[in-house]
Amino acid sequence: MKTRRLFLAASVLFFVAGGTAAQEERVVRGTVVDSVTKQPVSGAMVTVEGTNLTAVTGNDGTFSLPAPVRGDVVLRVENPGYTRAEVRLSAAAQDAGAISPRP
What we know:
Blueprint: H1 2-23, E1 27-32, E2 45-48, E3 54-56, E4 62-66, E5 73-78, E6 85-89, E7 95-99
Parallel strand pairs: 1-7
Antiparallel strand pairs: 1-4, 2-3, 2-5, 5-6
């Protein structure tokens, strides 16, 4: 009986902790576009500064990547033939909008 209670308590703790972690996910999305032509930039590398979290833009210039839940983040965009671009997002932001590096 004691083993059964211990198992039940551990199960409840597991589900509560798992639910909390799922609620703390943050995914940042945006689009990289050429600052002159306003065309999507494919293959650009977008990195959350100070982390190893990285995404590569698709053919339509869009990206989606996980970001730290707490605190502001700086996204760094790099692509050959363009200057490096950076954008700061507040702790609550999930939409980076359009990021426009210069050719």
